[in-house]
Amino acid sequence: VTDARGDSSWGEFDLVDAICRRTDAASDVVAVGPGDDCAVLHLPGGGWAAVTTDTVVGGSHFDPHADPLEAVGFKAYASALSDVAAMGVEATAGVAAVVLPRGTNYDDARRLEAGLRRAAERFAAPLVGGDVTMGDSPLVLTVTAWGQSDGSVAPLLRSSARVGHRVLVTGELGGSLLGRHLEPEPRLAFAAALNRAFTIGAAIDISDGLAGDVGHVMKRSGVGAAIDAARVPVSAAARQAAERSGREALWHALHDGEDFELLFTAAVEEAGRIVADPPLGVPVTDIGEIVEGDELTLRHEDGRTERLNPRAFEHRMGPKEDR
Ligand SMILES: [Mg+2]
After folding, report:
1. What is the CA(261)–ligand 1 centre distance, in A?
2. Helix count (H) and strand count (E) of the chain?
């Protein structure tokens, strides 16, 4: 792929942007087309369904020789469910398609399935079908999941952040590579309860890292954001990661991916009510505000500000020498 400037180095966001511009979403059944955590479809009777699909590839997203296949299956299913949670509903069910490298042994294939089923059971979203193929390829696993609402609540979209909203996150961030990334806990029950009990602006699950995912919300909502450094909930794992990397723990909380926490926005008073009495007792932290413009700013306690680049952490594609 070469772009108009003759640049053959491109990122996954470039391709997704191009697809989102060209996909025809002008159908009566489509409520929300490409570009959010899920597509949203109208259901007969006034309800809606949120559907997502996600692929992991051995050697790119996991190490087929080191990562247990049970864990790979669990993570793939749970991370798809996290995209459903980002829409403010519980997950209904999922299906999985797998391409097994030729020569895969039977027990390993069953371990992959066991991981999918463990996630399906844990998060009450049954695995209801799929497809198994063999190929001359690495292991490829695709999970499609959906959730549905009777229409009593609206789906939470990336595009609904408004200037003056507070930015809130669940749990603690950073350092997921030290172990938590293999055992994601999608915030399904929390997100559904939050959507029922409060008026929420935008929402997204944190998979690309806090800065990257705030960036997705900014772009879809046409706003900027200012994050207060001292308010970011830094996990113990982020502090451990910092000891190893020599970076600040805050850096890991801002940029490490795969936290699978929920990030959302709400008007000031509503945000205060949520932080004071969050659904299901899940810890929620107010970390900053939505502002005018298109910049993501980090505000330090001493008044210093720095500009963060939310796009710095996408996976670069295209020929290696052009990166
Ligand atoms: Mg997502």
Report:
1. 10
2. 8, 15
